[in-house]
Design goal:
heterodimer; A: mainly alpha; B: about 260 residues; alpha/beta; six-stranded mixed sheet; four-stranded antiparallel sheet; about 40% helix; globular; binds adenosine-5'-diphosphate; binds magnesium ion
C-alpha cells in the first residue's frame, strides 16, 4: 500500500522537464544531434542578422526605382509601386475592385467551407451563387458592369482561377480514372490506362502549348475557344492523371476483405465504392494527393508559355521595365510569399482533415 | 439417420432446398480447385465443413454468394441460379449472410453504422429504423454498449460478434461462416461460438467452415469432409466422428482431435 503511494508521488527528474529539459532531450541528445544543432546555430547567426539588415534596416519602401539604386538594402518599392499591376495585371485599372472582391469571396467561401462535416445541399447552392457572382464580377456585361475580355484576366485572380478549378475538377476526374483503371470492363480500363500513361508521358508545358497552338487547327473555321478555358482544361486533364495514380495506390492498399464484406452485404458497385472503399482509400493517400494538388497550384505559372499573365508573369513584366530591373530578388520574394500562403494553407488544411479522420479511427 | 428424418420431413412438407450445388467445378487458372461438388441444404439445416488447409472449403462457400465464380455445374440459392447476371448476384448476396475469418468490419464506421449500412442502402430502410434494428441485433450478440465505438476499439471476439450481427441485420435466409473463430485468441472463441449456437437454435440455416469439433457435435446436422477439392465424406456428426469411413477422414481426424 505505502509503496504504491510513494511510487505515485515521485516526480520526474528536473533535468527532463521545462525548457532546459526539452532543449537537452531534443537538441543535445547525443553527439550527432549536438553537432547538427551547433552547425545550424552558427549558420543562422551568420545569415539572419545579414538578412534582417538588408530586408528591414537598410531597405526602402515607397521610393522610385532611381532612389532604390542608391539604397544599400532591399528595394521593396518594386512591390509597393507596382502592386496593382502585379496583382491584377492587365485588368482595366478602374475596375480592379471587381477581381479583388471576387478573390475575397473565394477566400471567404473556402474558409467558410473548411469543416467538411457541415457540407450539405445548402452549402452547395451557396457555392453556386458565389461562383456566379465571382464570374459576373470578373466577366461583367450585366447589371451595368462593363464587359472585360478573358484575355485581360491576369495576375493573382488568374492564378487562383486556374488553380481552383484545376483542383476542383481534376480530383473527381482523377478518382474516376483510378476506378476506371481497376475496372473489369475492358473498354473503360483501356481508356483509363491509355489516358493516364499518355498524359503522364507529356510535360504540362507541351500540353499547354498544344492547347493553344495545335488544338485551334482542328477547330472549324471561325470557331474559337477561349484561351483561358483551353489552358484550364489542359491543367485539369494533366493534374487528373497524377491524381489517378495516387488514388490507385490507395485502392491497392485496401484489404481485399473490405471489398468482400461490402459485396456480401449486397451493395452494388457504386455503393461499395462510395461508402466503403473510397472513404478509406482516399484517406490513406491524403498526403501524396495534396502534394499533387500543390504542384498543380504552382504549375499554373507555366501558362506563361501561352502568353497568359498569371502573377508570376506580371512580376516578370514589371522587372522588364528599365526602372525596376535589378530588383528581382525583392519582387520574387513577394510572389513567393503569396504562393507560400496558399500552398501552406492547403498543406495545413490537409493535415487538419487527416487528423480529424485519424482521431475517430484510433482513439482507444 | 437424424438428418434423413429431417430431410424427409422437409421434403414431405413440400419444402425446397435453400441451397443446391450440383456437379460444380471450379478452376483457378489451370488449377482444378473444386471437383464435382454436390451439396443440398434444406431450410434450417446446419452443415459443418471441415478438411485440411487448402482443400477448397473457403472456395466452396465463397461460390455460394459469388465472391468466387464457378465454371461448371449449377448453384441455386433460394431459387435463384447464380450466373453472370449482376442483379441476381446482388439479390442472392442480400439473402446470404457471410462471416469472415478476419471479421472485415468497416474500420471507418462506428459499430452501429457498420450494422445499419446494409439495411439502409440495400433494403432502403429509413435510417432511424435501421439503427433500431442494429441495436436489436447488438443486444442479441450481447454488446449493445459498444454501439458508438469504432471496430479498432473493441476486442477480436467482440468484432466477430459485431460481424455476425451485421449479417443478421440483413435478415438473411442463410448464414455462411468461414472459420469464424480461427483468428481469435482462445479465450474469445467461446463467446463467438455461443452466439452461433443460439443462432442455430433459432433455426437459422447455416454452413460453417470450422475445426471446432465440439461445435460440430452440438449443432451440426451433417458434417462434410473435403480434401483436395473433393467432398470425401459426408455424414451426421456422431457417425462422422466415431466411425469415419474414409482413410483420409480418419487421418484428418487423428490429426486434429
Ligand atoms: N484467388 C485464388 N487464386 C488462385 N488460387 C487460389 C485462390 N484462392 C484460393 N486458391 C487456392 O485454392 C485452394 C483452395 O483454397 P481455399 O478454398 O482457401 O482452401 P481452404 O479454405 O480449405 O483452406 C488452395 O490451394 C489455394 O491456394
Ligand atoms: Mg479457408
Amino acid at each position: 500500500m505505502s509503496t504504491n503511494s510513494e511510487v505515485a508521488d515521485i516526480k520526474p527528474p528536473a533535468i527532463n522537464v521545462g525548457v532546459l529539459g526539452w532543449v537537452r532531450s531534443h537538441l543535445f541528445n547525443g553527439a550527432l544531434n549536438s553537432i547538427a544543432t551547433i552547425v545550424v546555430l552558427l549558420v543562422a547567426m551568420k545569415f539572419i542578422p545579414q538578412f534582417v539588415q538588408w530586408a528591414f534596416i537598410d531597405s526602402v519602401w515607397f521610393t522610385s526605382g532611381q532612389e532604390c539604386h542608391e539604397a544599400a538594402g532591399a528595394c521593396w518599392s518594386v512591390v509597393t509601386q507596382n502592386i496593382r499591376f502585379n496583382v491584377f495585371g492587365y485588368y482595366p485599372y478602374e475596375h480592379q475592385w471587381r477581381p479583388l472582391v471576387a478573390m475575397i469571396i473565394l477566400v471567404l467561401m473556402l474558409i467558410y467551407s473548411r469543416d467538411w462535416k457541415k457540407w450539405n445541399r445548402r452549402l452547395g447552392y451557396l457555392w453556386l451563387v458565389a461562383l456566379f457572382v465571382m464570374g459576373l464580377l470578373m466577366k461583367g456585361g450585366l447589371f451595368g458592369l462593363i464587359s472585360v475580355e478573358t484575355t485581360k484576366w491576369s495576375g493573382l485572380p488568374l492564378t487562383l482561377l486556374l488553380s481552383f478549378f484545376g483542383i476542383l475538377a481534376s480530383y473527381p476526374l482523377g478518382v474516376a480514372l483510378a476506378l476506371g483503371r481497376q475496372s473489369t470492363m475492358p473498354v473503360i480500363k483501356a481508356f483509363s490506362v491509355v489516358y493516364i500513361e499518355l498524359i503522364r508521358g507529356v510535360p504540362l508545358i507541351t500540353m499547354l502549348f498544344m492547347s493553344s497552338v495545335m488544338f485551334p487547327l482542328f477547330l472549324p473555321e471561325g470557331v474559337t475557344i477561349d484561351k483561358v478555358l483551353r489552358a484550364q482544361v489542359a491543367i485539369i486533364i494533366f493534374t487528373a492523371a497524377y491524381v489517378a495514380e495516387v488514388v490507385r495506390g490507395g485502392l491497392q492498399a485496401m484489404d481485399q476483405g473490405q471489398y468482400e464484406a461490402a459485396e456480401s452485404l449486397g451493395l452494388n458497385y457504386f455503393q461499395k465504392m462510395r461508402l466503403i472503399i473510397l472513404p478509406q482509400a482516399l484517406k490513406i493517400v491524403i498526403p501524396p494527393t495534396v502534394g499533387v494538388l500543390i504542384s498543380a497550384f504552382k504549375d499554373t505559372s507555366l501558362v506563361v508559355i501561352i502568353a497568359l499573365y498569371d502573377i508570376l508573369n506580371t512580376t516578370k513584366s514589371i522587372l522588364n521595365v528599365p526602372e525596376w530591373t535589378g530588383f528581382s530578388t525583392e519582387a520574387y520574394i513577394f510572389v513567393a510569399s503569396i504562393y507560400f500562403v496558399f500552398c501552406f494553407s492547403m498543406s495545413q488544411y490537409s493535415r487538419y482533415v487527416e487528423s480529424e479522420l485519424e482521431y475517430k479511427a484510433e482513439e482507444k | 439417420m437424424n438428418t434423413e428424418q429431417i430431410q424427409e420431413n422437409n421434403d414431405t412438407a413440400g419444402e425446397k432446398p435453400v441451397i443446391e450445388i450440383i456437379n460444380m467445378h471450379k478452376w483457378f487458372g489451370d488449377f482444378h480447385v473444386l471437383k464435382d461438388i454436390n451439396i443440398r441444404v434444406m431450410p434450417q439445416e446446419k452443415i459443418v465443413v471441415c478438411g485440411p488447409s487448402g482443400s477448397g472449403k473457403s472456395t466452396v462457400i465463397r461460390c455460394i454468394n459469388r465472391l468466387e465464380e464457378h465454371q461448371r455445374g449449377k448453384i441455386i440459392v433460394n431459387g435463384t441460379e447464380l450466373s453472370g447476371d449482376l442483379k441476381n448476384i446482388e439479390k442472392v448476396r442480400a439473402e446470404v449472410g457471410m462471416v469472415f475469418q478476419h471479421f472485415n468490419l468497416f474500420p471507418h464506421l462506428t459499430i452501429v453504422e457498420n450494422l445499419s449500412l446494409g439495411p439502409i442502402w440495400v433494403r432502403k430502410m429509413p435510417k432511424k429504423e435501421a439503427e433500431d434494428l442494429a441495436m436489436h441485433y447488438l443486444e442479441i450478440v450481447r454488446i449493445p454498449e459498444q454501439a458508438k465505438k469504432y471496430p479498432g476499439q473493441i476486442s477480436g471476439g467482440q468484432q466477430q460478434r459485431v460481424a455476425i450481427a451485421r449479417s443478421l441485420c440483413m435478415k438473411p435466409k442463410i448464414m455462411l461462416f468461414d472459420e469464424p473463430t480461427s483468428a481469435l485468441d482462445p479465450e474469445m472463441i467461446k463467446e463467438v461460438l455461443d452466439v452461433m449456437i443460439s443462432l442455430a437454435e433459432e433455426g437459422m440455416t447455416m454452413i460453417v467452415v470450422t475445426h471446432e469439433m465440439g461445435f460440430a457435435k452440438t449443432v451440426a446436422d451433417r458434417v462434410i469432409f473435403m480434401d483436395y477439392g473433393e467432398i470425401v465424406e459426408e455424414n451426421e456428426p456422431n457417425e462422422f466422428f466415431d466411425n469415419p469411413q474414409h482413410e483420409r477422414t480418419q487421418l484428418f481426424l487423428s490429426q486434429i482431435l
